[in-house]
Design goal:
Pectate Lyase C-like; 1 helix; globular; mainly beta; about 280 residues
Length: about 280
């Protein structure tokens, strides 16, 4: 589950603006390629907080997890259908609270540890250290999900072939964070008001980031100097302190990242935004 690495990455990205880039040692991929389509397994409805699920899940009610993780995936090729419901963690302020909750939880909304071909769809995850945490998984697809008020909205490490699409990632410290991840695809998402960064790539290669709206963060898109051969194109990245940041200003040919047709106002280095 590697919560220590997640906490370290969160702390490391706070120092974005330092001249030195972020350096985190890579984690070997452990997932193996399998079928992309979840099997027609029996449905598990109404799982409880902290439950390990090994069959397809359809939520029939909200989950309020004040002291535990939300759902832990325990098998390959399953689908977690939130069915319009919300998984709420410890970091959400209760309606009757007199002071706001402190966002220091170590819990995770949906955890996918070393399992492949998992889908997470159609609902909200809020108030965790990570809304979704993928460690060593392959072929994870997240679609139609709102991840908000977490420390990290969606976090992957040691993963490959991960897709986040048609989702809303908002009010987190970091929206989408990829560490040692291969072939991440982020497309058609609304990513806004994430304090430190909207989308970050650390030691991650061959990502495709396209057709997203990314606004109101310190860094809209941040790619570190260990991330290579990534494609960032046709995004609206506006109203961030720095809209697109390639390795704190290194020339893009240093790590062979490609930026094309991005509507933005500020970039580091300059010249990445359309007409700017």
């Amino acid at each position: 589950m590697n919560r220590t690495l997640m906490a370290y990455m969160l702390a490391a990205i706070v120092s974005f603006s330092a001249v030195a880039g972020i350096t985190i040692q890579p984690i070997p991929l452990s997932a193996q390629t399998q079928s992309v389509t979840p099997q027609n397994a029996p449905l598990a409805t109404s799982p409880s907080c902290g439950q390990v699920v090994t069959t397809n899940v359809v939520l029939t009610a909200n989950l309020i997890c004040a002291e535990t993780d939300g759902i832990i995936v325990g098998a390959d090729s399953i689908k977690i259908d939130l069915n319009g419901h919300t998984i709420t963690g410890p970091d959400v302020t209760a309606d009757d609270a007199t002071t706001p909750a402190v966002k220091d939880s170590s819990k995770v909304g949906i955890m996918v540890p070393n399992h492949n071909n998992v889908q997470i769809v159609d609902g909200t995850i809020e108030g965790f250290q990570a809304g979704v945490l993928c460690t060593g998984c392959q072929n994870l697809e997240i679609s139609g999900v709102t991840s908000k008020d977490n420390q990290i909205g969606i976090f992957s490490t040691g993963a490959s072939v991960m897709k986040v699409k048609l989702s809303t990632i908002m009010n987190n410290q970091i929206g989408i964070a990829a560490h040692s991840t291969q072939q991440m695809e982020d497309a058609n998402n609304i990513v806004f008001n994430n304090d430190l960064a909207g989308i970050t790539l650390v030691n991650s290669d061959n990502a495709h980031i396209s057709l997203n709206s990314i606004t109101e963060s310190q860094n809209g898109i941040y790619v570190d100097n260990q991330s290579n051969d990534n494609f960032v194109f046709f995004n609206n990245v506006l109203m961030n302190t720095i809209d697109i940041n390639n390795a704190n200003g290194l020339p893009v040919n240093t790590n062979n990242n490609q930026y094309d047709q991005n509507n933005c106002m500020t970039s580091n280095p300059s010249g990445i935004c359309i007409g700017k």
